[in-house]
Amino acid sequence: LANILHANELARRFKEEGVNITANSLHPGSIITNLLRHHSIIDVMSRTLGRLVLKNVQQGAATQCYVALHPGAKGVSGKYWSDSNLYEPSAKAKDAELGKKLWDYTLDLVAA
User: Fold this and answer.
1) CA gap 63, 26 in Å, rounded
2) pTM
3) Which of 34, 52, 66, 69 is the most buried (most CB within 10 A)?
4) What angle do CA 40, 44, 47 make, to 5 degrees?
5) Which pLDDT tens digit goes with each residue over 65-109?
6) Domain edges within the chain
7) PANTHER family from the entry (predicted)?
8) How far, in Å, CA of 103 to CA of 58, rounded?
C-alpha cells in the first residue's frame, strides 16, 4: 500500500512541477526464488509445489521491463500495473490525501 501511495504522490508532484518523468507502482506476482535455499526441507517443498503455481524469475521481471521499456507504457504515470497490464488498485491505494500524509510523514522521518 505504501509503495502505491508513494508512487502516486511522486507522479502527482512530477506532473505539478512539469517534470517529464513517470512514476508507477506494480506487482510482479508470486515468484519462485532461492530465498529459502538454507532451509532444505522448506526449499524442496516450495520449489516442487512452486513450479506449479509461481512465476519464474524472468516472468516475475516481465512487468517491470514492460513498464520501463514498452512504447505502450510511455507517458503513463501514477498507475498500478500487474501482469504487464494496468490494474485497478484498492480504494485506499487511490486515496490522494493518504498519499500526501505518507509523503509528509516520510519527510519528517528522513529529516529527524
Assistant:
1) 7
2) 0.83
3) 66
4) 130
5) 999 999 999 999 999 999 999 999 999 999 999 999 999 999 999
6) 1-111
7) SHORT-CHAIN DEHYDROGENASE TIC 32, CHLOROPLASTIC-LIKE, SHORT-CHAIN DEHYDROGENASE_REDUCTASE
8) 32
Distance between CA 34 and CA 11 in Å, rounded?
33
Separation of alpha carbons 75 and 84, rounded Å: 15
Residues pairing with 31 in the sheet:
55
* 102 close to 9: Cβ distance less than 8 angstroms: yes
Torsion of CA 26, 93, 3, 9, to 10 degrees: 110
The helix, strand and coil proportions of the chain, stated in percent and rounded to the nearest 5, come to 55, 10, 35
* pLDDT per residue as tens digits for the range 13-49: 999 999 999 999 999 988 877 766 677 776 667 667 7
Cell numbers for 38? 538454507
| Residue carrying the nine cell digits 512487468 | 63
